[in-house]
């Protein structure tokens, strides 16, 4: 009886001791201070389909891309668990059977033969950055592993392993490994690739495929052999996997749209992932196109391309420079955001505003002749004048005089307001717009120009361009009728020589001094802008938008899609008639103050100008005339001094010192006068 009592007491004591030990162990585990979670990961820029455009290494230079089990090939996960931790799904952080096996093998062989670490213990080691061989380290890993299992679900622990496991060099995580060794994400892997990924973390430096290729292949084949014995791979599959080559070089990480990535990261440095509207396939094609466009050209020449869907404003491709590198092209400068003179590319907006204001119609006749706009006398690019022609033809020929005449009638402030209304941010030298704005006398970016042309292509509704976030509602820029008319005129331009035969509405431009060459165009859905020049703003002799930028624009559209989307039909209120059937006020362009102004072809004194002070030194005075109908009569202070003059240069006898009023009367009785002072 006493013996039974002692046994009962001993059993109770053992149970109480076990309970106390369990409680102490629980308290010990619960008191574990875990490493910081979450761990730092590479910032990622992803395209509209989730494809990686660019990643940034973490602070210590390591590539560590976050990975979830759902992102990884299930066959790899099965091989990983079968090789590293068969009871991962059921143990509490440590696997006693694996530990006993490892201890027995070590005692028998006198050295470590196999490890007993679970995947959770490996995660604990990776989180703390401790070694693998010391028992003190093992004990700490076991404690952290037990604590992790209590606080995190299995999928989260597996995700930490897939993010932190070392794969050689500065590669951490399975995604960094597959991108670097195989050039792809880990969603679909061959058995040979999966086996190599299982083998590398055990000894990432001694098995690096690029530095220890035989060791990497041998380790991979050992994994394949074990998977064959375990029945995970069939003999035929394992044999085929062993014949697959092991990579010998690391591939570079994706570096698409680097300027955009830098800008997004700078704007929101805390965000881990930036999802953008770009298309990785198109971005890659356009970057290749930009690099190819500069082959055989001056080494300082740069290029930028921006493509967008003008219906919703989504940017599809953005090339800030042909190469993201220092050098003569200054590749780190994002030329889609650099201020430049737009040259003639604003003329379509001038004409569209004139259509909306009732100043002109595409078939309105307008004069292209030498004109002085209050001291501003622009010239056409080729120095020639075409006389009278339709507004549509004046726009197609990109003539300067008609564009300035329309801007003069509109008012430069109205043109500037429309540019800003399109979503652009123009910079005006001196702060006050003048007539030169129509010819590029302001600063705009390629992004601004594409924004403006997106409004023209979208029926006159400007949708703000954006690379991330939701689309903004459109704003009415011009009427649908005016937008269609401009698009119809520009689509009548022939493609550049040697370019694909596409029907695009496009315009080219060349800034003063050949500093910038532009081409911007749209079809029924997309808009693309091209800039070429030097990043430092110095001239590029012989650079014309129509010769170097326009062919690139057409090649870009052909890369975008096989055929352009058709331009829309004319709106119902569009007036489609020839010049002679237009309402009389629209048949010929005349400024609003034309009733009080001399006729455009009235005689003008080109020299001397009104208010001039001349020191003739007793020599004759030579008058220079422009326009008017010969013969001419010249009066000096009301007295005839030359009659029946047919030439445009008239020599007068030397006048005396003092004030002199000169008048020139042509054959139709029209006159020009200038008051001068002879000293």
UniProtKB/TrEMBL annotation:
KW Protease (keyword) present: yes
Keywords associated with the record: Carboxypeptidase, Glycosyltransferase, Hydrolase, Multifunctional enzyme, Protease, Signal, Transferase
Record-annotated Glycosyl transferase family domain positions: 61-227
The protein's name: peptidoglycan glycosyltransferase
Pathway as given in its UniProt record: Cell wall biogenesis; peptidoglycan biosynthesis
Family: In the N-terminal section; belongs to the glycosyltransferase 51 family.
EC number of this enzyme: 2.4.99.28
Residues in Penicillin-binding C-terminal domain copies: 598-676
Catalytic activity: [GlcNAc-(1->4)-Mur2Ac(oyl-L-Ala-gamma-D-Glu-L-Lys-D-Ala-D-Ala)](n)-di-trans,octa-cis-undecaprenyl diphosphate + beta-D-GlcNAc-(1->4)-Mur2Ac(oyl-L-Ala-gamma-D-Glu-L-Lys-D-Ala-D-Ala)-di-trans,octa-cis-undecaprenyl diphosphate = [GlcNAc-(1->4)-Mur2Ac(oyl-L-Ala-gamma-D-Glu-L-Lys-D-Ala-D-Ala)](n+1)-di-trans,octa-cis-undecaprenyl diphosphate + di-trans,octa-cis-undecaprenyl diphosphate + H(+)
Signal peptide: 1-24
An annotated GO BP: proteolysis
GO cellular component terms, semicolon-separated: outer membrane-bounded periplasmic space
Domain called Penicillin-binding protein transpeptidase: residue spans: 304-514
Top-level division of the source organism's lineage: Bacteria
Short name of any one Pfam family annotated for the protein: Transpeptidase
Enzyme class: transferase
GO terms, molecular function: carboxypeptidase activity; penicillin binding; peptidoglycan glycosyltransferase activity
């Amino acid at each position: 009886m006493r013996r039974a009592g002692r046994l009962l007491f001993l059993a109770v004591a053992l149970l109480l001791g076990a309970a106390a030990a369990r409680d102490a162990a629980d308290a010990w585990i619960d008191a574990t201070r875990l490493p910081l979670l979450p761990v730092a990961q590479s910032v990622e820029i992803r395209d509209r389909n989730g494809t990686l455009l660019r990643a940034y290494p973490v602070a210590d230079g390591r590539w560590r891309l976050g990975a979830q089990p759902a992102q990884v090939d299930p066959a790899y996960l099965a091989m990983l668990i079968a090789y590293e931790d068969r009871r991962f799904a059921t143990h509490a952080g440590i696997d006693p059977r694996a530990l006993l096996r490892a201890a027995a093998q070590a005692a028998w062989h006198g050295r470590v033969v196999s490890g007993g670490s679970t995947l959770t213990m490996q995660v604990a080691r990776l989180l703390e950055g401790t070694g693998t061989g010391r028992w003190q380290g093992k004990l700490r890993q076991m404690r952290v592993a037990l604590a992790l299992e209590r606080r995190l679900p299995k999928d989260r622990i597996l995700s930490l392993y897939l993010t932190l496991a070392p794969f050689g060099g500065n590669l951490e995580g399975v995604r960094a490994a597959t991108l670097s060794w195989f050039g792809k994400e880990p969603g679909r892997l061959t058995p040979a690739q999966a086996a190599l990924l299982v083998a590398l973390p055990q000894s990432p430096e001694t098995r690096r495929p690029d530095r220890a290729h035989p060791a990497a292949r041998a380790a991979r084949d050992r994994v394949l052999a074990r998977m064959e014995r375990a029945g995970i791979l069939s003999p035929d599959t394992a044999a085929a996997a062993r014949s697959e080559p092991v990579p010998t070089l690391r591939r570079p990480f994706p570096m698409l749209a680097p300027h955009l990535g830098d800008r997004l990261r700078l704007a929101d440095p805390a965000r881990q992932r930036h999802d953008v509207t770009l298309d990785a396939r198109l971005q890659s094609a356009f970057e290749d196109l930009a690099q190819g466009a500069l082959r055989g050209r001056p080494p300082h020449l740069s290029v930028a391309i921006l493509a967008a869907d003008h219906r919703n404003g989504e940017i599809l491709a953005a090339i800030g420079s042909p190469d993201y590198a220092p050098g003569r092209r200054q590749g780190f400068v994002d030329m889609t955001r650099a201020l430049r003179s737009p040259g003639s590319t604003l003329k379509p907006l001038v004409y569209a505003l004139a259509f909306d204001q009732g100043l002109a119609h595409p078939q309105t006749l307008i004069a292209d002749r030498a004109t002085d706009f209050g001291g501003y006398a622009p010239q056409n690019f080729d120095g020639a004048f075409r006389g009278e022609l339709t507004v549509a033809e004046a726009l197609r020929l990109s003539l300067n005089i008609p564009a300035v005449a329309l801007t003069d009638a509109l008012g430069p402030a109205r043109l500037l307001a429309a540019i800003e209304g399109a979503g652009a941010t123009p910079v005006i030298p001196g702060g006050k717009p003048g007539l030169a704005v129509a010819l590029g006398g302001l600063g705009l970016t390629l992004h601004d120009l594409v924004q403006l042309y997106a409004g023209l292509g979208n029926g006159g509704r400007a949708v703000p361009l954006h690379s991330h976030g939701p689309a903004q509602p459109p704003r009415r820029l011009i009427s649908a009728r005016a937008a269609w008319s401009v698009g119809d005129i520009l689509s009548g331009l022939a493609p550049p020589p040697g370019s694909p035969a596409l029907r695009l509405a496009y315009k080219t431009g060349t800034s003063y001094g050949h500093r910038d060459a532009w081409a911007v165009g749209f079809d029924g859905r997309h808009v693309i802008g091209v800039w070429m020049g030097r990043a430092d703003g110095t001239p590029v002799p012989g650079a014309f938008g129509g010769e170097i930028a326009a062919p690139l624009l057409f090649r870009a559209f052909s890369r975008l899609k096989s055929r352009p989307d058709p331009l829309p039909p004319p709106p119902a209120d569009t007036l489609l008639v020839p010049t002679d059937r237009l309402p009389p006020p629209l048949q010929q362009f005349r400024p609003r103050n034309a009733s009080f102004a001399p006729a455009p072809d009235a005689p003008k004194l080109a020299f001397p100008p009104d208010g001039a002070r001349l020191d003739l030194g007793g020599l004759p005075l030579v008058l220079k005339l422009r326009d008017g109908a010969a013969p001419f009569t010249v009066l000096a202070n009301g007295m005839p001094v030359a009659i029946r003059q047919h030439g445009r240069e008239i020599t007068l006898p030397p006048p005396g010192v003092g004030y002199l009023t000169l008048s020139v009367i042509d054959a139709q009785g029209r006159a020009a006068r200038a008051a001068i002072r002879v000293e």
